[in-house]
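Input set for joint prediction.
Command: fold jointly, output tokens.
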Amino acid sequence: MAVNAARIKSDGTGQSPFLSTAMFAPAVLYILLLVGGPFVLAIFYAFSDARIGNAELHFVGLENFRSILESPSFRVAIRNSLVFTIGSQIVVVVSANILAIALETAFRGRGIVRFLILLPWVAPISLGAIGWKWILDSIYSVISWTLVALHFFKPFSAPMWLGEPHLAIASVLLVHSWRIIPFSTVILLAGRTAIPKDIPEAAAVDGAGFWRTQFQIVIPMMRPILSVAVLFGLIFTFTDMTVVYILTAGGPFDSTQTLPSLAFALGIQGSDLAAGAAISLFLVPLLVILAYFMLRVARRAEVS
Amino acid sequence: MAVVETRDVTKVFKEGHLGAVNNVSFETREGEFLVFLGPSGSGKTTLLRMIAGLETPTSGKILIGGQVVNDLSPRERRVAMVFQSYALYPHLSVYKNIAFPLKAQNVPKDQHRKKVEWAAGLLGIGALLERKPRELSGGERQRVALARAIVREPAVFLLDEPLSNLDAKLRASAREELERFHRSVGTTSIYVTHDQVEAMAMGDRILVLNKGVVHQLGTPTEVYDNPADTFVATFLGSPPMNLVELGDVIVGFRPEHFLPSVNATGTTIPLRFEVDNMEYLGSEWIVSGTIAGGKLDSKKAVSRLPSAQHLRHAGVYDFVVPTRTLKFFDPATQRRVPEREIQWQ
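tokens >
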């Protein structure tokens, strides 16, 4: 680095092709080795019969994709991935907006509340998920215990939060929401503080009530930052497998399986690398679309 | 149209601290252009915001059109406000900005276009309706803000330093335009400014405020020629009124009344004036220096003269002040006191 820095021409621009290449190289290398390489390998495996513990490889064409598309678990996984991702983002956007509005005005203890709300984001996702696993456990669930204590259910008859397909889906969706809400709240809060106070005041004098001010002035003004929050949330949730893996491991009966967790279950746990690779490739089209919007938002933010 | 009145309005932001506005009472006249004038921190904007309903008074009553509005929200007060920053909605076109108050007050949709076009026409921005605020110049933004304020035909107009974001040249023409605008719509208007030139030029009457207290309410002529106290005397006029303490009274005279003795007529008070600085401002000269000899020896004074060619730096000259232009103030209260005989020598 020092050598390259010394080569900077003294023409006052401070630009040196060597320096910029050197600064750029680690990022490019990182992406090539840890993202590009596995990605190419996944494409390669998806058209082969690769298995763990078997060194031989044969090209099998679209066979893997054919068998995946025929499997009911895969269709459930695609549906779940979309339900979890979109559903939790709806919950997140609504809750994060409410929280941001509540936390915008000063009140006693606001600092502590902000800290508590941010906690789920700071805690490792696996620890959070393990916590929820206990909260939703079939025997030790604190929620069931409370509901029984309040006489909503007879002892031992409370719902099995993670044991019944619909409840399990709802539970996973809500834990995903819980995970992303702090992040969105912080982003939206920043967006709100960036709006000059004059604007909502002008709306108030113009005759707008709370809802009109929020929905026609404040939230539309936050659209760029709101789309950043939503895009990040979509990507985090869509690619995540920790929550499902820890809470339900895809069960009961593969009812909460998502694309990443199914790929892991089949490819790594089930030794069928080829099937796992083929499944994970289905993540690509959606991620490409998200990445496109992400870049567009970033460019817009630069312009304004 | 309506009259705005405040009765003993006080606003204390932090308990135990001095109020931003203290016991302010005044009443506008129908269709009047009233100016709140004061330095920054004088409470003029806070007072305006309380009238708009954006702040709640700590005590006192605010009346619009004879009705107490303390508990009414801004939307129920039928006031329109133009903010210092204009506060245009950046994501909406000019048309939608102007139409927003109509929408918010549930005016039937089929009337929107007619009303927006009327307001835009009044301000000469009919060609800009499809633009976004960021595509407009400062002067155009100000006109959009005014159009948005006028479109709902409010009972009262509140303007918070609407010219302060414009450059000096544009400000003069925008000021003229605002005056013409007020004449044509005739709505009672309250205008906040720290600029005495704006206040003098535009106000039917001026409410002079300092530290949240009303010092004087009067026409531009009244506040300039008959200031109620030393604050008003020195805040209005540039350079400010000369104030010299003479025994148990403060004597004041305007720089334009402090003249070389050759220019004087009538009964005058003679003073020796030692010049130590001269500024040429094109149409006039600002000459500052100290009084030499007599009871006022070494007191500072400023003179404003149409020409000062015959004066030289460090020279001592015979100056006079016409007796009828003198103002007298009580040193203890700083309030104006009646004229009296004084000994100059």
